[in-house]
C-alpha cells in the first residue's frame, strides 16, 4: 500500500509558496503527487513554482520576503534562501 503524500495549505491563489501541515518530513511527495524536498518540517514553506533570485516570495497574497537564490518547485523556503 502506498502512503498518501504530504498535506499542505495554499492560502491565496497568488501565493508562490505553500505551508506543510503534517510532520512526515521524510516523505518526498505531496498529496497532489508532485515532488518535494525531504526534511521540510511541519509549518515550513516550500515553493510551488520556480522563484528566481531577487523575486518576491508571496504568502497570504502579500510579499513576505525576497528570494536570495533561485528556488525550484518543491524546495524548502526559509532563512537560507529568503530574506
Distance between the termini: 40 Å
Outline type: globular
Shape-level CATH architecture: Roll
Share of β-strand residues: 15-25%
User: What structural class should be given to the helix and strand makeup?
Assistant: mainly beta
Tell me the CATH topology. Archaeosine Trna-guanine Transglycosylase, Chain: A, domain 4
Instruction: Please give the radius of gyration in angstroms.
Output: 12 Å
Find the count of extended strands (DSSP E, 2+ residues): 6
CATH class: Mainly Beta
| Strand numbers in spatial order across the main sheet | 1-2-3-6
Supply the number of structural domains: 1
Regions with little confidence, pLDDT below 50 for 5+ residues: none
**Main beta sheet:** 4 strands, antiparallel
**Portion of residues in helices?**
under 10%
Amino acid at each position: 500500500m502506498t502512503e498518501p503524500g504530504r498535506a499542505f495549505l495554499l492560502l491565496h491563489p497568488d501565493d508562490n509558496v505553500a505551508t506543510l501541515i503534517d510532520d512526515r518530513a521524510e516523505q518526498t511527495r505531496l498529496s497532489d503527487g508532485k515532488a518535494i524536498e525531504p526534511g521540510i518540517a511541519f509549518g515550513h514553506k516550500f515553493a510551488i513554482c520556480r522563484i528566481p533570485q531577487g523575486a518576491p516570495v508571496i504568502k497570504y497574497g502579500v510579499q513576505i520576503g525576497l528570494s536570495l537564490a533561485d528556488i525550484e518547485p518543491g524546495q524548502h523556503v526559509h532563512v537560507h534562501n529568503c530574506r
